[in-house]
Structures are given as structure tokens and as C-alpha cells.
Amino acid sequence: MGVVDGIWPRWSADVGLVALTCLPPLLSQPYVDTSSLAWSSLVGYEVVTVAVLVLRRRLPATAFVAGLGALVVALAGSAGQDAKLTPLVFLPLAVLLYNLGSYCTSWVRAVLAMLGGSVLIAVGLGVNQLTAGASEFRGSFDILASLAPMPLAWVMGFAARTRRVLLAAAEQRVADADRAQRLQAAQAAQRERARIAREMHDVVAHSLTLLVVHAETLRARGDELPDWARTQVDGLAAAGRQTGGELRDLLRMLRDPAEVAPLQPMPGLGELDVLLDSHRAAGGPVDVRVETELESLPGPVQLAGYRLVQEALANVRRHAPGAPVRLTVDDTAGQLRFEVVNGRAARRGTAGAGVGLGLVSMRERVDALDGKLTAGPTGDGGFRVVATMPLETAGV
Prior knowledge:
It contains eleven helices and five strands, in the order H-H-H-H-H-H-H-H-H-E-H-E-E-H-E-E. By secondary structure, it is of the alpha+beta class. It has a five-stranded mixed sheet, with helices on one face.
């Protein structure tokens, strides 16, 4: 049977404390007084002791007063009948005093408990002097000698409580420092995101806007352009408008990460035909083979697949313009597979095109879905990109 919420360890500690506190008086009593009256007083006192020890944490002041009262009654009652109890009956009192210093957080209750205990001791000593028969059982000075070191138990308990308070304060300071450090890191990251957003707005967005403006100007004068140029300009304008919308979403999320909802729907595999048509319009033949229901795929997979094909086609246009491309999308054994293979370039690529992060971005998207991406040149001068993503992990 397992431990539940620390209940069993606490009860086991209580049982051990009760045993260590109550057994020594019972074991030593036969060496002090074996009369039935002494045993009756001791057993009655032990019963009360067990009860107050169990309740000592929740009611420390009450437990102390009740335990001390039971001790006074047992000592005075047995002395009045010429019976004597073992000195170890003071052991539970030491435990209760330690508990009072350790768990009683109210100074008023602690002081009242000690004043009440002092009154009980004084009354008990008076009754002992008045009722004890034989002189050997008038143990007032012995009782005072046994009580003299008892305040040390309270001091030890108070020291233990002080240590707990200091440890809790230290842990709180560490937690506050950790929260402050995380807040500073978050603020620094937000400042960096804002700086990147400003740079992108000032440089990329401005250049992209000029590109779209020039493309729309050329479209307005389309009757002066050849047919192939009009098609290219239309594709350029559409791509510029789409990229501009996605860039606005990106800049907004960089400035305020809490606003994660895009202003326009994120692209998915439903727009794959438009993406392929734009590549064909740029002079790149594409052979497509799709063997799965694209619309039924989860959103994260659709977005990752769209971006993967988009980046792969962009790389073809940069580095192998005019090369034939073969796109295959299928699912096997719970794995969605994208394969983009291009042949040898039909004409010279653009020198220095791109920033060299396309494959890195593709790999990060696929890794985020617990997938796998491989990319590398083929033997005939082409390039091959293959990505597999588990549908189960993606939420299908």
C-alpha cells in the first residue's frame, strides 16, 4: 500500500513518539512503586498523555495545559495515598513544552499556557504538602528539581520553529529572485523581439511594399507586355500580397506574443494547387502525385507541409531554375510523407540567393511534430528533400 499525501509517515512518527514517551515510565515504575494505586495513577496519566500527544500539533497550548494538569493530578493523587510515581513521568511534559515552542505561533496563547501551567504546579505542590502522608513521599523539592530544566525544552522548540521560519523565508527569497530573473529574461526577449520587428518593418516590409507596387504598376500596363510577362507579373503581385499579409502577422506577434491569432488564415495543403501554379508560372514544371486526403489532415501538419513544399520550390527557383520537380505526398503506417525531388537546372541559378536558413527552418518545423527530414543531392545533379511526420503525434 503506497503512501498517500504524507499521511502514513506522519502517523508512523506519532506512533513512534508516543511509544518513546509513554513506555519508559511504564518500564521504570516497577523499580519505584508496585502498588495498585501507583499503577492506576500512572495508567490514567498515560492515557491522557497519548491523547494530548496525538493532538499536540493542532492544539499545542491546549495539549500542554491538559498534559500538565494530568501530571499534577497523578502526582498529587498518588502522593496523598502514600504512592510514588517514577520520575520519568516528566518525559511527556518535556515533549509538550518542546511542541509548544515549536508549533504555537501565538505569543498570547503561549504565555497564557505557561501561566496556567505555573498555577497548576503551584496548586499541585500545595496539595502535595497538605495531603502526603509519609515524609518520604513529600517530594516538592524533587518535583521542582525535575521541572527546573523543562524551560530548555521550550527553548529548543522555539529554536526549531525559528529555523523553519528562516528556511521558509530563504526559500521565498530564492523563489522571488527566480521570478525576477525570469521576468528580466522575458522583458529582454520582448525588447529583442520588438527590435527585430522594427528592423523587419523598416527594411523587409518597405522593400516588399515597393516590389508589390512595381508589380501592380506593370499589371496596369499589361497591354504593353508580352503574354509570358503578364503571367509572371500576376504571379509576382499575388505572391507579394500573400507575403505581405503573412509578414504583418509575424510583426504583430513579434511585438505582442500574446496575440498569437493571425489576421488571416494560415496556409494549408488546400492551397497547394495555387502554390504549384505559381511555380509553374515561373517556368518550373512540376509533376504531382498525392495519395492521401489532404483536407482531413490536422492543421499543424498542413501548415508544416505547405511551408516545406513552399521552401523546396523556392530553393529550386533559386539554385536550379527550370529544373523539373516531382512532388509526392502519401501516408504509410501512420506516417505522412512528403518528397520533393528536382532534376538538373535548365539554366544558371541566381548567385547568392537566399540566406541559407531554408533547410534549417524546414527541419525545425518537422522536428516540432516529432518527424524526420532528410535532404541532399541526387546522383544526376538534382536535389531531394524527404520529410515524414507521424499522424498520431499530430493529433489524428
